[in-house]
Amino acid sequence: MPAPYLSRRDVLRAAAVIAAGSALPSWFTAGAADPNPVSTGPLSPNDRPGILLVGCGGMGTHDLSLAAKFGDVVGLCDVDAARLEKTSQLYPKARRFADFREAVRTAGTDVVINATPDHWHTLVNLAALKAGCDIYSEKPLTLTLDEGRRLVHAVRSAKRILQTGSQQRSDRRFRLACELVRNGRIGRLQHVITSLPSGRQGGPFVSAPVPAGLDWDRWQGQTPALDYVPERCHGSFRYWWDYSEGTLTDWGAHHNDIALWGMGLEHSGPVTAQAVPLLAPIPGGFSFPSLYRVEYTYANGVTHTCQTVVTEGPGGNVLTEPILPGELPNGVKFLGTQGWIFVSRLKIEASDPGILQEPLTKRKVILPVSDNHMQNFFDCVRSRKDPVAPVEIGHRSVSVCHLGAISLRLGRTLRWDPVRERFPTDAEANGWVSRAQRAPYDYAHVA
Ligand SMILES: NC(=O)c1ccc[n+]([C@@H]2O[C@H](COP(=O)([O-])OP(=O)(O)OC[C@H]3O[C@@H](n4cnc5c(N)ncnc54)[C@H](O)[C@@H]3O)[C@@H](O)[C@H]2O)c1
Predict the structure, then answer these.
(1) What is the model's pLDDT at position 33?
(2) Nearest 10 degrees: CA dihedral of 253, 258, 261, 262?
(3) Which helix (H) or strand (E) holds 259?
(4) Are 174 and 20 in contact (CB under 8 A)?
C-alpha cells in the first residue's frame, strides 16, 4: 500500500503523474481553516502601524507595496540617495534617512521592513529590536550562523515579532506538500532534493568611480573595504562570498526551508554536510561558485541533496524546458518508501495522483495556515502570536545553507551538532560560525 489513508486508489490510478499547479485538490482548499488563527479582524484606520523600509531596492519596494495595505509608510532609508529619491516619489509623505539607526528610533515607526543586502540584515534587525519595532526581514535571514543565534536571542528577549521573508511558507502548494509528507502520505521519507537556480559566472570585473550619492563605505558595512566595483553592489551582491553565499542562500533559504518543514526538522538541522563546486569561479569575477552540489544527512537517517539546475539562470522563477537528462527543475522533491512529491512555485505533482487527491482524513500534523505572508505578519503584529516564519525557523533554514557554504570553503565533509550549533572537534569549521566584522560596522554599531 503506497500511503496511509488512501481508499479510492484504483479510480485515481489512471495517470502516473498529475500536475496540480492551477488546481489544488478541493479537499485541501476547502479544509484550509487555520487550527490556530491569528487574525483579529480587519484593521481599522486607527491601528495602522507606521512602516519604515530599510533598503529601497527591488525587493524592498515590492515588500513595501504589499505592507502599505496594512499600515502607513512613515520612513524610507537607503545609503544610495538615488534609490531613496526614486522610492520617495512613491511615498512622498515618508521621511527619508541615510542611517537606519536614526530611522528606527523616529517616533511613529512601529514596523521595519528590512530589505538590505544579506550582510546588513542582522545589524538592521538588532537596531530595530532595540528601538522596539516589529520586523519583516528578508531572507536569507543572516550572513553567518552566529548572527542567527544572536538574533533569535534578541527577538525573544525583546518580545518582538519577526517574520522571515520566506514567502513559500504562505504558498498553499508548499504547505500541501509538507503536510502530506509529514503525515506519511509517501510512506517513510528517505530523501529530499532541493533544486536551485545556478548562480552567475562572470568577470573579471574592474573598479569604477563610486556613483554620486552612494555611500559605498556604509554599503559595504561589516565586509572588507574594497574599491567600488558595480557588479559587487546592487542586485548582484548575492554572487559574492563577502556579502552572501550565492544561490545557495538566495534560493536555498527558500527551498531548504521547505525541506526542513517537510522533514519536521525546522528547529534542528543536518548532522553532516558535504559540498562540491561544479564550476570554478573566474578569478576577479563573481566569487561564489555558480554551480555546486551539497549532500546532507540528518540524525533520523533522511538524506538531502541541494543542487543547482544547470539549465536555469539565477532569476529562477521561470522554468526552462527541456531540462538536462536527470536534472530536476527548480523546486523541492520529497522521496519516500511509497512515492514522491515534487513542489515548486509553478506546480505540485506526485508519483501517483492519489497522493495529492485523496483527502488527509487523519492528520497527525496540521501545519499553520497562511495564504498571505505579509498579512500574516501584520496579523501577528496585532495578536502578538508567532508568524508562520518566525526567527528560529528563518535561522535554522539559512543554517542549512551556511553549513553547505562552509563545506564548500573548506573542501571537505563537516559534522554538525544541531543541538549545540557547533562543529564537534573541528576548530577550523567553528572559525566560520562567525566572520570578522569591519569596524565601525560591528555589533557595537547598534549596541
Ligand atoms: N523573498 C524573496 O523572494 C526575495 C526576492 C528577492 C530578494 N530578496 C532579498 O531581499 C534583499 C534585498 O535584495 P534586492 O535584490 O532588493 O537587493 P538590492 O541591491 O536591489 O537592494 C538593496 C538596497 O539596500 C540598500 N542598502 C545597503 N546597505 C544599506 C544600509 N546599511 N542601510 C540602508 N540601505 C542599505 C542598497 O543601497 C540597495 O538600495 C536580499 O537579502 C535578498 O535576498 C528576497
Answers:
(1) 54
(2) -150
(3) helix 252-263
(4) no
Confidence of residue 324 (pLDDT cuts 50, 70, 90): confident
pLDDT at 149 over 80: yes
Q: Cα angle vertex 78, ends 76, 82, to 5°?
A: 100
Confidence of residue 327 (pLDDT cuts 50, 70, 90): confident
Closest alpha carbon to 191 in 88, 295, 313: 295
218 lines ligand 1 (CB under 6 A): yes
Residue nearest to atom 5 of ligand 1 (CA): 59
Q: What is the topology classification, in CATH, of domain 172-366+392-446?
A: Dihydrodipicolinate Reductase; domain 2 (3.30.360)
User: What is the mean predicted confidence (pLDDT) over 82-92?
Assistant: 98
Per-residue pLDDT tens digits for 31-56: 555 555 444 454 455 689 999 999 99
Q: Which residues contact 157 (CB under 8 A, 6 or more apart)?
A: none
pLDDT at 393: 98
Task: Show me where the domains of the chain are located.
Answer: 45-168, 172-366+392-446
- Cell numbers describing residue 175: 504547505
* Residue 138 CB–ligand 1 contact under 6 Å: yes
Supply 45's cell numbers: 484606520
120 lines ligand 1 (CB under 6 A): yes
Of residues 337, 348, 250, the one with CA closest to residue 3 = 337
Residue 357 has pLDDT above 80, yes or no: yes
pTM (2 d.p.): 0.92
pLDDT score for 27: 82
Helix/strand/coil for 364:
coil
Number of the ligand 1 atom closest to the C-alpha atom of 219: 28
H or E stretch including 305?
Answer: strand 303-309
Q: Which CATH number fits domain 45-168: 3.30.390.50, 3.40.50.720, 3.50.30.30, 1.20.1600.10?
A: 3.40.50.720
